[in-house]
Write a structure and sequence with these properties.
Elements (H helix, E strand, L loop, with lengths): L4 H9 L3 E6 L6 E6 L1 E3 L4 E4 L9 H7 L4 E12 L2 E12 L3 E5 L2 E16 L13 E5 L4
Length: 140
């Protein structure tokens, strides 16, 4: 299973994600807002020059903490309450130089493993909270 057409359209419409990594000692999670790119298979986070390698997110990945999470969401309306989003658990590879969403720079590729999406249609919340669609990526 993979992302639905509706989920892909949503991912490509959003400019910002929250990106979570775990410190090298495994003790402290870190989450930061990042621009991201989705190429249809992988997510890419990063940009800028070599100085991006000094950021906590890249230090954590290069220290071997490969398991990461992304949340891409938005609040369409407070009245009525309309929220939608996608949460992704995945594995990050070591950063590489490439041309990405903010130009040439250093980016980490994230391979999604599992994702959950909710309210891609942008409907107001009803009597119960939005049901989530779970997808296992890379599975047949």
């Amino acid at each position: 299973m993979s992302f639905s057409d509706e989920e892909i359209a949503y991912l490509r419409s959003q400019p910002l994600a929250r990106f979570a990594t775990l410190a090298a000692d495994g003790e402290q999670p870190d989450v930061v807002p990042v621009s991201f790119e989705f190429d249809g298979t992988h997510f890419w986070v990063g940009g800028g020059g070599a100085s991006v390698l000094a950021t906590r997110k890249f230090q954590n990945i290069q220290a071997g903490q490969r398991k990461v999470a992304l949340v891409i969401d938005d609040m369409v309306s407070f009245e009525p309450f309309i929220a939608r989003g996608i949460r992704v658990y995945g594995e990050a590879a070591d950063p590489i130089e490439r041309v990405g969403m903010v130009g040439p720079g250093v980016y980490a590729r994230v391979t999604p493993a599992v994702s959950w999406s909710w309210n891609m249609a942008g409907e107001p919340v009803g009597e119960t909270w939005y049901p989530a669609r779970r997808a296992v990526h890379g599975a047949t």
